[in-house]
């Protein structure tokens, strides 16, 4: 009986690890279009990212950026530091790239590597950006970069269009990670 | 003790109000808001990339004008070069002139001039040193279009169309607005959101 349980345990462990290789754990609940690197999402994927799993009570930080956006590139090191400082404290940070899907391997991933970025990054691939922009915020006109912080209940507690002021963002995150 | 409690409560309330204000605004507070649809735009003067000064009223067509904030180095703006040129040609004959405005501090007039020649942009491009006109229009990105009617009333503010890739265009928001204006109708969709490059302002 013990041996059978042992075999069952080993079997489950192997199956679990294989499943992990085939579909890496997604911290944001968005289905993966790729198994590694930058994942592609559509409008539904963006909605899932924002709505997320109701059981996930971590504050959620979303930054919309692109490699062709100078201000986005300039603020990225600050965001990498924020991710490093607050992920262990319970912040869920997802960066949403608005680059062309053809530029994932040639521009997006090399930039993330250069930045030593560790946060999950998805690429929004939509033909018409307006529904996506208004899904995120009806007052947003697509100015970039754009940064949104959602509290444990999914309510926007901070939004900023243009380059972030790191101290301002950090103070709001600090408050949210304490409240989670 | 009661006094200390009251002060703490007051400070906490201030903090909550401050964070609510931060969360609610979003737009970079350093930038002015764009004029409302229906607002009349005052005439202004700016030099073109060659240094010749023009006024808005001297450049607009008899039926109005399209002002587009553009850039030389922005891939999104550059993705629209051919479409902007086609727009200028198509609507000049209908009495609406396209005027480009470059407000990027990082792109000097000489670059604007050579870029226009290289990309075959024949419409007038004004150089907005000090981004005063970008501030007046609340323009934040490139490309960003504003349509003025014959009396300089703002009737459309937003994107050119739905797709950076020309083969993906399904909604010609700007052309639709111009056609409605020319037909004497009220513009039904007065704006459209799209991603673009941030205008580099003077610090």
What does this structure look like?
The complex is a heterodimer of chains A (180) and B (203). In chain A, 45% of the residues lie in helices and 17% in strands. Chain A is of the alpha/beta class. Chain A is globular and about 40 Å long. Residues 5-35 of chain A have low confidence and may be disordered. Chain B has one domain (34-198): Glutaredoxin (3-Layer(aba) Sandwich). Chain B has helices at 2-25, 56-59, 75-79, 81-92, 109-118, 132-137, 173-182, and strands at residues 45-47, 53-55, 64-69, 96-102, 124-127, 141-142, 144-149, 154-158, 191-192, 197-198. The relative contact order of chain B is 0.18. Classes of the chains: A alpha/beta (180), B alpha/beta (203). The A-B interface holds A 66, 68-71, 98, 100, 127-130, 133-134, 137, 139-144, 156-163, 168, 172, 175 and B 19, 22-23, 25-28, 31, 74-76, 140-141, 158-159, 162-164, 168, 170-171, 191-198, 200.
Features:
heterodimer; A: 180 residues; alpha/beta; Glutaredoxin; six-stranded mixed beta sheet; 6 strands; 45% helix; 17% strand; globular; B: 203 residues; four-stranded mixed beta sheet; two-stranded antiparallel sheet; 10 strands
């Amino acid at each position: 009986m013990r041996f059978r349980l042992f075999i069952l345990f080993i079997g489950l462990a192997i199956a679990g690890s294989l499943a992990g290789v085939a579909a890496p754990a997604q911290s944001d609940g968005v289905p993966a279009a790729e198994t590694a690197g930058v994942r592609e999402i559509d409008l539904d994927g963006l909605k899932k990212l924002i709505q997320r799993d109701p059981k996930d009570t971590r504050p959620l930080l979303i930054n919309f950026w692109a490699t062709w956006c100078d201000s986005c590139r300039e603020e990225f090191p600050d965001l990498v530091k924020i991710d490093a400082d607050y992920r262990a404290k319970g912040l869920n940070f997802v960066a949403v790239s608005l680059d062309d899907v053809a530029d994932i391997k040639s521009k997006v991933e090399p930039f993330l590597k250069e930045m030593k970025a560790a946060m999950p990054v998805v690429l929004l691939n939509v033909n018409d950006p307006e529904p996506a922009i208004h899904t995120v915020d009806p007052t947003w006109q697509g100015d970039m970069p754009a940064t949104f912080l959602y509290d444990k209940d999914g309510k926007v507690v901070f939004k900023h269009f243009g380059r972030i002021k790191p101290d301002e963002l950090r103070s709001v995150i600090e408050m949210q990670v304490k409240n989670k | 003790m009661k006094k200390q409690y009251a002060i703490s409560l007051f400070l906490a309330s201030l903090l909550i109000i401050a964070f609510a204000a931060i969360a609610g605004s979003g737009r970079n507070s350093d930038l002015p808001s764009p004029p409302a649809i229906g607002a009349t735009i005052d005439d202004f003067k700016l030099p073109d990339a060659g240094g010749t000064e023009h006024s808005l009223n001297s450049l607009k067509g008899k039926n109005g004008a399209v002002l587009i904030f553009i850039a030389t180095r922005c891939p999104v703006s550059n993705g629209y070069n051919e479409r902007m040129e086609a727009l200028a040609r198509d609507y000049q004959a209908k009495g609406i002139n396209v005027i480009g405005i470059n407000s990027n501090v990082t792109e000097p007039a000489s670059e604007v001039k050579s870029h226009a020649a290289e990309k075959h942009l024949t419409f007038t491009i004004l150089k907005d040193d000090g981004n005063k006109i970008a501030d007046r229009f609340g323009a934040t990105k490139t490309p960003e279009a504003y349509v003025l009617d014959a009396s300089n009333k703002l009737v459309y503010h937003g994107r050119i169309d739905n797709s950076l890739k020309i083969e993906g265009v399904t909604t010609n928001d700007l052309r639709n607005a111009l056609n409605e204006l020319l037909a004497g109708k009220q513009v039904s969709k007065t704006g459209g959101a799209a991603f673009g490059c941030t205008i580099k302002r003077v610090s």
